[in-house]
Each structure stands twice: as C-alpha cells, then as structure tokens.
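Handoff note, outgoing to incoming analyst
You'll be picking up this chain. Sequence as last confirmed:
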Amino acid sequence: TPVNDNTWEDEVLKSSVPVLVDFWAPWCGPCRMIAPLIDELAGEYEGKMKAVKLNTDESPGVATEYGIRSIPTCMVFKGGEKIDTIIGAVPKSTLVSTIEKYLD
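Most recent structure output, in case you need it:
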C-alpha cells in the first residue's frame, strides 16, 4: 500500500497493528530488489502486520522527519512509535526476523 505525507498519520501512526514501512524512490536500484519482498510479507502477515511503501521523492516530509538518508530503508512502527530500522536491500529472512520480534 502506498502512503504519503497526507496519509502517513492514519495509515502508520494510528494503525492497530505493527507497520513495516519501505522508504524508496523510483530511481533506486536496490529499492526495486526489495519491493517484491515487501509485497510478499504484506500477504504473509495480513491481519497481523501492515506493509506500506513511501516514495521519498513524492513525500519528503516524512522521510526528513525520520532522518532517512539512504534508501531503501525499512522501519517498523508500533503504537505510533518507530521501534526498529533496517537500512539497505536485505534478504527476506532479515526482514522476517525483525518483524517477528514485534508481533503480539
């Protein structure tokens, strides 16, 4: 699910389940490598976790607020708070082990 500066609060901060946010941009090669993994995780964890994507070119406000300096960066939010960060195009297993820590 794409999110932007306008939908960020409702989709991420007010979410009742943990949210994995993929900060990306169209020109970023490694971002294109990790994108299918995010989609897979969204399906596998449906109902337990939400996965969203934020285009840093279109929504620089949120990216700046959270100090995104390199992409892809994935962040995990729970209860409106950032609780973890994964920088770079990492293997799916790394994303899974991070997500699993925060599921109820």
